[in-house]
Amino acid sequence: MQALVADLNRHLRLYHAEDAPEISDAEYDRRFRELQELEEAHPELVRPDSPTHRVGAPPAEGFATARHDVPMLSLDNAMDADEMRAFDERIRRTLDLEGPVAFLAEPKLDGAGVELVYRDGQLSVGSTRGDGRVGEDVTANLKQLGSIPLRLAGEAATHPERLSVRGEVVLPLAAFARLNERRRQTELPPFVNPRNAAAGALRMLHDVDLQRLRSLEFRAYSVAEGLPEPIARQHQVLEQLRAWGFLVTPECRVCDDIEAAIAAHDRFLELRETLPVEIDGTVFKVDDLALQRDLGELARVPRWAIAYKFPAQQETTKVLDIFASVGRTGALTPVAKLEPVFVGGVTVSNASLHNQDEVDRKDVRVGDTVVVQRAGDVIPQVVQVVRSKRPKRTKRYRLPDRCPVCDTPVVREEGVAVTRCPSPACPAKLRNRLLHLAGRGALDIDGLGEKLVEQLLDAGLVERPSDLFALEREALLGLDRMGEKSADNLLAALERAARTTLPRFLIGLGIPEVGSGVADLLARHFGDLEPLVAASQEELTAVDGVGPIIAEKVRVYFDDASHLEEIARLRERGVCWPAIERREEGPGEDGLLSGRTFVLTGTLDGMSRSEAKDRIEAVGGKVVSAVSKKTDYVVAGEAAGSKLRKARELEVKVVDLEGLIELLENGPPAEPDPEPAAADAGS
Ligand code: IVH
User: Fold this and answer.
1) CA of 113 to the centre of ligand 1 (A)
2) Mean pLDDT, to the nearest integer, of 453-463?
């Protein structure tokens, strides 16, 4: 217990006072719980300096202090639905209630807690939470935030003499992305997450970065002193805060009982990716203020509120090794082998470090402790190295000079990030080309996975992709653990896969830069392979959606005689596709949506994705798969994920099904005057 107390206190200080955490929030919560459980079992051993008695860390030197007349408390956590039910039980037992308790569900904002004190409607002091009783006076910095009213709105008669408003200062994701981009350009280390960037910004003493401060947002959630008499419910507190001119998170909902609250949490978890700010759970508060008073507070947390946390999206773990993996184009990718860690709903044991430049920028080394992130359906990433935990005598990582698979010296061309194995005979390339060709988006060869590919290669049955389509039953039966049934299944799968479509075939070739979106465009434009192979670079660039870089890659690919030979062999061995009716330039050249690009994400209730695509294209619009700055609209349905988040980051317009139908029927609205956009209230 003594060790845990010391350990937790140290991490509290790193987190609150230095904005430089060494362990993830989830890890902190786990250690905190362990201590809580030990203290419950051995109350006689509870230490006076235990972090279970307090919140946060004392104010840092250099700031004037500000006392919180009403302490700023922390929140107890619930990790699953049963813990939520136990919380509800406890409340009803304490209050001796028969019926259900209503809760207000609010997104748990992942930022820094702040108190604002108003006197006669005028902002007088703004402070950080500090240790809950005394915080840092950061009034001057807070005054830079547009979402903090310097004077309360509404009738002066409704302004209490003294008002204490509590809320969270957050950095919206779009601003976080911009800020980190700027830091990257000036070679400053990027912030790990929006919360650290926000907390750090608030506590800038010198060289105050105004741009960073002004991108912060204050979202109000409670009134600690000065609440007008007639207000009796937590949700009415929020209404009053709005009336005074504060920004209040719009997603807050009243839930009639605990089951409704649990459902609201699940809904927030779905919404998470789509919100403009980071949230890390749901806060539930007993809606009835009189009941809140009856329940009261413990030293550190109120009995009437709880934070139901989302599964963590960031964890810290150790880099056990870094190795180079060779892809289908021969690119060497440095991969960090990690001590397995559960993050974002999956166990992560490898994370790509992309290329040598990325390794250099993050300076990831074997033995390092790193922050790993997996958000939504995005592949796991190493966000940052925890420098303070680097062991002695570590070395910078460099990709090897020779291909780890075939020992050919690698090459790195001037001005590009990729290091490549140039050998056409590199077995790693062939292996990955086969896996790519067999993949879902390409020929989709059922049952041809890594194991079988290895076996085929080891047995020398396949030396190039086209050999797959000449495999014979007898030869397959000679493979280890290959029975008659499996052999026949594989042959049948190959036969099915051979009858494909032009876009799938193009994807399967593995031409650099040609993924499903580009393959679709090329197939539709040229209709068949021959005209595409014959197209000049200019003709390729003329295809809407194909730029000079893609055009060059395509040209280079088809200029290689060995590629054409392999294509011929594939066709001889049965790979075929129907020609596509050539799309004359634009049904809807003058269509309502011509020139607009769309990205579809999530499920649209009432219209299938393919119907939406057809209808958009019928009026001249284009549907692409990835969101970029050039995207005009993201159509977001139920359970939309990372694309929607990306859209928010890039400030791309987002519409729902209704919005899409409006666009299909009436086209885009007339362009508004180019006035500066009003601050988005977070809807
Ligand atoms: S209420 C006594 N509401 O989470 C109630 N807090 O882990 C305590 N937080 O210190 C505050 N979103 O900084 C409340 N909607 C919300 C919140 C919220 C984020 C923060 C707050 C608090 C911490 C506790």
Assistant:
1) 7
2) 93
